[in-house]
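Attaching the record inline, Q. Sequence:
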Amino acid sequence: MNPYRPRDVVIVPFPFQQGEGKKNRPAVVLAVESDQLLLAPCTRRPADGISAVKIDLEDFEEGGLDLFEESSVLIAHHAKVPVKKVVKKKGRLNEDTFNSIIRPGRF
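Structure, as predicted:
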């Protein structure tokens, strides 16, 4: 059984947008599809013109990231990653924050 649910924030080897290489980074679980997770990566430095939602520690209902400043969820860079690739769970976003990430028209 898949232990992850939408709103979870996990650490995974997330593929670079260009398709070459991966980097362990936090990502928000947007949806669960059998043995795959649809994820949106988090970063402290979003590129200009990229659709993103800012998050900080107050946006977590449990756990959190090691944040010293705001991070951004990169909505346009979502990807499917196998559940077995998850390194660990870092926390869970509150419903309001998650709803602002997945609101209609974002994908």
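The chain has one domain: 8-102. Helices lie at 95-102.

More tomorrow.
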